[in-house]
Amino acid sequence: MGANMVRRLLAEGYEVRAMVMPGDPHASKLDRFAEVQVVEADLADQAAIDSACEDVSHVVHLAAQLVRGATPVDRFFDVNAFGTLRLLEGVVHAGGDIERFVLVSSDGTYRPGAPPAVPLTENVPQEPADYYGTAKLLGEIILRNHAVQFGLPFSIVRFATVVSPEEAPNIFRAGFWRSILRWQAMGKDSHLWPLFENQPDLAKLYDAAVRDVPADAAVGLTGPDGEPWTLSMVDVRDAVQGVYRAMTAPGAIGHPFNIAAAEPTSHDEGAAVIAETFGVPQLMVEMPMTFRLELSIDAARERLGYEPLYDYRDMVQSARRAVSAGEFIPAEAESGVASTWHDG
After folding, report:
1. Is the pLDDT of residue 71 over 80?
2. CA–CA separation, 93 vs 108, rounded Å?
3. Whole-angstrom distance, CA of residue 271 vs CA of residue 180
4. Which residues is 120 bridged to in the sheet?
5. Which domain of life does the UniProt lineage start with (predicted)?
6. Which residues have CB under 8 Å from 60's CB, separation 6+?
7. How many angstroms from the chain centroid is the CA of residue 130?
8. The CATH number of 2-163+233-262+293-309+323-331 is which of 3.50.50.60, 3.30.300.10, 3.40.50.720, 2.60.40.1730?
9. CA 330 to CA 245: how far, in whole Å?
10. How remote is the C-alpha of 183 from its chain's centroid?
């Protein structure tokens, strides 16, 4: 998201200061933008953040750690919640005279392993019950409180699963869903733990069903009644559009917005795209329940004028056409899309 957001801001005529982690291996994505001022600052370093916030008109806060892994819980919360606090303090220390502070949050704040509604709107309860979702929700609360306390104009975007087009062909494959369902072994350390609660055999059932299926086969999941599972995703190009509109639209101030594709992708549709595009076999695997993770974007359409341009088929076709040089900057993530499936 970061490099693609920088690209959009430059195209719109903004001067851009990009804050990156010290030693960030992905900072090289910004080398193509000679006019961008790149500064290094750890989200725990208030002095460095204060310096980065001097003389800025807008702050777009995209930084987050999605997967906790071996990171201590307090450090994980420090990055995802108190990093937001320090950025806000940086704005306050710089005088607080900004046009907009945009916080990028997540569908993880809705407890995605057991969605409280289908589709999810911005008004449903945010009760995440996991480390990442809780930390992101705390960041939202900190932002709202600082906005009232210091008169800061703000908006919040909650991403569906953000996908860079070159990652899209990895989804709806036998190997992809195997890796997702094996998150069950993480126990309560996964944001998806509610999905596995009272369902201890999902990974085993899946492995038995795809035992003789190639890892690149097109696979989707269905419930026992044949109803396919669903997933809300958003192409990185549409995600950039949503953030830019949250940063500039007058109707965005003070509101949260779900940012996703126009429609969720059903597993049968996603698997069909892979099978048709790559000529691989297609299989639908029955699970003991139906799982639907869907975000409503009605509020973003109404208040922001947000209108997503890309569905899952478009993402896959973009990857096939290798259009990145003209349309987006690839993710270049070593771990692939599976590590970021739950969010942006």
Report:
1. yes
2. 30
3. 16
4. 295
5. Bacteria
6. 5, 102, 104, 243, 247
7. 16
8. 3.40.50.720
9. 22
10. 18
Q: For 75-89, b where at least 16 C-beta lie within 10 A, e where not — what string?
A: ebbbbbbbbbbbbbb
How many whole angstroms from its chain centre is CA 201? 28
b/e burial code for range 109-148 (CB count within 10 A of at least 16 → b): bbbbbebeeebbebebebebebbbbbbbbbbbebbbebbe
**Other CB atoms within 10 A of residue 17 CB:** 16
Rg (CA), the chain: 20
Confidence of residue 92 (pLDDT cuts 50, 70, 90): very high
pLDDT one-digit tens code per residue, 105-116: 999 999 999 999
Q: Considering the chain, what is the average pLDDT of its residues?
A: 93
Can you spell out the DSSP letters for 206-272? HHHHTTTS-TTSEEEEE-TTSPBPEE-EEEHHHHHHHHHHHHH-GGGTT-EEEE--SSPEEHHHHHH
pTM over 0.85: yes
Of the given ranges (64-78, 282-296, 320-334), which has the lowest mean pLDDT? 320-334
- Percent of the chain that is helix, strand, coil (3-state, to 5): 45, 15, 40
For residue 293, pLDDT over 90 is answered with yes
Query: Could you tell me the two tokens for 38?
Result: 């790149």
The candidate with the shortest Cα–Cα distance to 205, out of 270, 288, 268, 283, is 288
Out of 56-70, 204-218, 256-270, 318-332, least confident range:
318-332
pLDDT band at 342, cuts 50/70/90?
A: very low
Residue in the structure block whose two tokens are 């957001």: 5
Residue 233 is encoded by which pair of tokens? 């995703």
What letter does residue 173 receive in the DSSP assignment? Answer: B
Residue 19: strand pairing partners: 39
The pLDDT value given to residue 325? 57
